[in-house]
Amino acid sequence: MNTHFTAIVKHEGDWWIGWIEEVPGVNCQETTRETLLDTLQITLREALEFNRTDAIDAAGENYEELEIAV
């Protein structure tokens, strides 16, 4: 499993805004850069777990898990 992702971060006004480049929908907004990075990490973990659970549920029975490198 890929353990490295790319955070795109931007300081705009009073806010730090960030996105995870490789995972659509993972974005956060915080008042400090450090808090933003922490929140992005938490949100990314939650999104990956949700996507994993969703895929397994959709597969039903008799599925296999294969690692694919890109």
What do you see in this structure?
By secondary structure, the protein is of the alpha+beta class. The chain is built from 1 helix and 3 strands; from the N terminus they run βββα. It has one helix spanning 33-59; strands at residues 7-12, 15-20, 27-30. The N and C termini lie close together (11 Å). The relative contact order is 0.15.
Features:
70 residues, alpha+beta, 3-stranded antiparallel sheet, 1 helix, 39% helix, 23% strand, elongated
Spatial sequence of strands, sheet with the most strands = 1-2-3
The radius of gyration computed from the alpha-carbon positions, rounded to a whole number of angstroms, is 15 Å
Span between N and C termini? 11 Å
Question: Helical amount among residues, as a percent range?
Answer: 25-40%
Q: With helices defined by DSSP (H or I, 4 residues minimum), what is the helix count?
A: 1
- Count of beta strands: 3
> Could you name the ranges where pLDDT drops below 50 across 5 or more consecutive residues?
none
* Strand/helix succession: EEEH
Largest sheet at a glance?
3 strands, antiparallel
Specify the overall morphology: elongated
Number of domains: 1
Brief summary of the model shown:
With 70 residues, the chain is an alpha+beta fold. Helix content is 39%, strand content 23%.
Write the layout of secondary structure elements.
Blueprint: E1 7-12, E2 15-20, E3 27-30, H1 33-59
